[in-house]
Amino acid sequence: MMTSAMRDSKGRPIAVVTGMGVVTALGEGKQDNWRALTAGRSGVARIHRFATENLRTTVAAQIGFIDFGGDSSGEMCYEVARRAIEEAIGEAGIGTRGDFPGMLVAAVPPFEVEWPLRLAVAREAASRGSSANDRFSALLDVAGAGDWRRGFEFTQRECVAEMLADTFGTRGQPVSMSTACASGASAIQYGTEAIRRGETGAVLCVGTDVTVNAESLVRFSLLSALSTRNDPPEEAARPFSRDRDGFVMGEGAAALVIESLESARARGADILGVVRGCGERADSFHRTRSKPDGSAIIRALANALEDADLEPAAIGYVNPHGTGTPENDKMEYLSLSAVFGAALAGVPVSSNKSMIGHTLSAAGTIEAVFSFLTMDRGTLPPNINYKTPDPEIALDVVANVAREQPVATVMSNSFGFGGQNVSLVLAREPQ
Amino acid sequence: MSEATRPDAWITGVGLVSSLGDGVEAHWARLKSGKVAEPVVDETTAAPYSFHPLCEVAFETQIPGRGDRRQMGPWQLLGTYAAGLALSDAGLGDDAAAKADMNLLVAAGTGERDPESDAAIFEEVHDLPADQTGLNRLMMDTLRPTLFLSQLANLLAGNISIVHGVTGSSSSFMGAEMAGVAAVENAVRRVRAGRDRLFLVGGSFVAGRNEHLLALAGMKLAWMHAFKPVWQRAGQGGGAILGNVGAFLVIEEAEHAAARGAHAYAAIGEVASGRGGTLQPVRDAVRSLGPGPLLVMSGASGIEPQTSDERGVLEGLAADGFEPVVRGYASVLGLAAEAHFPAGLALAAIAADRGAAYDPFEGSGFEQPSSLAPDHVLVTTQGQWRGAGAGLLASTER
Q1: Model confidence at B107, in pLDDT bands (50, 70, 90)?
Q2: Contact, B217 vs A132, CB < 8 A?
């Protein structure tokens, strides 16, 4: 029988974090990332992996220090996730190599046949002088006849989760989640709830996204979602500034080992933090815009606090979605003020995206790791490029330089295009 | 919560659209006609690949807004339509308050591409040297902003929230067939844990898309011969025929359903999944079931060796005292990726509700006619690449 100290106020097993790993444009590992993040260094630079002529946006927070074996999103997402998981499992000291005693939940972008693979197959079709009467049929002929299997495996929707499950020996069928920019937070919520239901003692949660490619840049550009402030690159991402003009794409991955407090204590693991509450609410207003009254986001935030059994006053810092699009930052402020009321003035806020860009499917996991580091180190990372405050956003933004300040509980928000809103309440200590 | 006090999960709404027809009644009529089922197969449009085309669908009946319909590609239209069918079938179509707090779990594909834009780019880039700059220009000139949205996996869920007002929570699972298993499994677990009471769960799949054919060809999983039911493909190496399917279920806590006088198709009990073949999930799903006749809606896809393996597992059920009556639903619906498991459950729920097994879906003799009134229906699904799952439905009429 589990003692009450192992359960939360709602009688559920407490979900704690015992290992974390992170890779972003700022570097590999928590130490390098934290050093850069607190120094206010931007990971945004000119795109280096492919030519950007004819594109409107030519900057991103790409990972430049890994020599990826291939150019498909699946291969790159796998490799970055693998490194983050190695770090997380190493820190947690759980299981043995290739044998993780719990399930895998992966937040991933959609994978599909991308242009490089399509064109590679097409070139082979051309060189063979295929007799098919149209280009696509020729493509099918060659794809079906040649040995493209490995390349096509990385176009399977579940490829990254499956290959990570192979590598780390997680238990059971891995789960892939894709709720756009909320994916990472959704994965943490999924894992936390599995522990709370008593289905498992440990979950490996990972979010990964390395999809800075020409097509995704074009598509986000067509939505007018991206910053076009290409010069200088490091000043493009400016969440909460009056002159913000869109988000900057980022790449990265983060992994968290989440366990029940009971199983973590039983094996003498260090407790790095607690997933105290998860809240969701979907929007029904528009495919890219929130309800003008913010009601869906407000409910997600309120649901997270309710799930954590905490009042807004308990939140010491907000790690916002903070993309730097005019719309998001305005709506997030509106929603935070509705939930926190006058108390919001005393809650510092800083967007990690000002330095690492918007890491999309990975953002919720990466920003959860940074939130736990924020509590552990007692330092609030800055929101850089905050030189012209938006007078309509009256937040206590941690402007440009880090702030020393102890924090016990953090709210971390993730909102996806398509209307999926997820908010997490993360705490340093089990209550 | 002890096993005895766990709430039951019921299926109280079914939305099913496929090559066979639109809705519960149409599927029952096609598949309980007194003779071996006749599938609808398009063997010419994408020859030598074939697929099960979508029946005629009046999308405006579930998606009345013209602006909404214009924002969606075929995948989202089909899913949003099937979701609406399930809500209406559950008697929730006009219950805005219930839908606002309802939880949405979607098994989602990769979004959808605009085939015309792709073809236009492809024609031009084909004549260019391997040159990123030219591809960039073509994409900037050719891709259209509205269809970007359908490129995101979670936009089917987004459209369902917008059109039907389902907003309690929303998660999208990815991973072909196993995404469908994960979504249903999550709903059942959340109901049985007493956490949530009302779910809309499912997915859709549009089979004729070039992208899907290309991926299936590249993985060498396609059936490229004249049509045969799934159990009859092994001799020629096996392979899958994709099928257009939209399949959504309303899964509801029993007490919640009873309180509002909802009709229950069946109770949904164990849902199990694993990384190997069907054997372990099937064993897990039937572990608390006594011997006797068992209707099995098998999702075997025709891909080998998985299909022959599954046949062996199902035949092996006899050794445990079961008398399996097997219907391989991929023979009549095709392989429907994310929508596959929800579609199998939908067919199973209909059979449990009507108290009869379908007529055989093939004529080799493996599937036998049966007068069984099933108390339980086992539903299986294998991933076209990896994974397997199974779920067990029980009649609520016992």
Answers
A1: very high
A2: no
Kindly state whether residues B38 and B142 are assigned to the same domain.
no
Q: Are strands B198-205 and B245-253 parallel, antiparallel or unpaired?
A: antiparallel
Active site residues of A: 181, 321, 358
Are residues B140 and B275 located together in one domain of the fold?
Answer: no
B226 with B370, same domain: the answer is yes
Q: Which residues of chain B from 260 to 279 reach within 8 Å of chain A, CB to CB? A: 273-275
B388 to chain A: nearest residue by CA?
A: A173
Question: Is the predicted pLDDT of residue B208 greater than 90, yes or no?
Answer: no
In this complex, which of A173, A282, A285 lies closest to B273 when CB atoms are compared? A173
For the cut 80, the answer to whether the pLDDT of residue B358 exceeds it is yes
| Whether domain A4-111+156-427 has CATH 3.10.310.10 | no
Percent of chain A whose pLDDT exceeds 70:
98
Give the pLDDT score at A67: 92
Query: By C-alpha distance, which of A357, A358, A353, A336 is closest to A345?
Result: A336
State the total domains in chain B.
2
Domain with B27 in it: 3-112+150-394
Q: Does B200 touch chain A (CB under 8 A)?
A: no
Instruction: Report which of residues A149 and B86 the model is more confident about.
Output: B86
Q: H-helix or E-strand containing A214?
A: helix A214-222
Q: How far is CA B271 from the centre of its chain?
A: 15
Is a pLDDT exceeding 90 seen at residue A196?
yes
Q: Which helix (H) or strand (E) holds A23?
A: strand A15-24
B287 touches A at CB < 8 Å:
no
Is the Cβ pair B218, A121 closer than 8 Å? yes
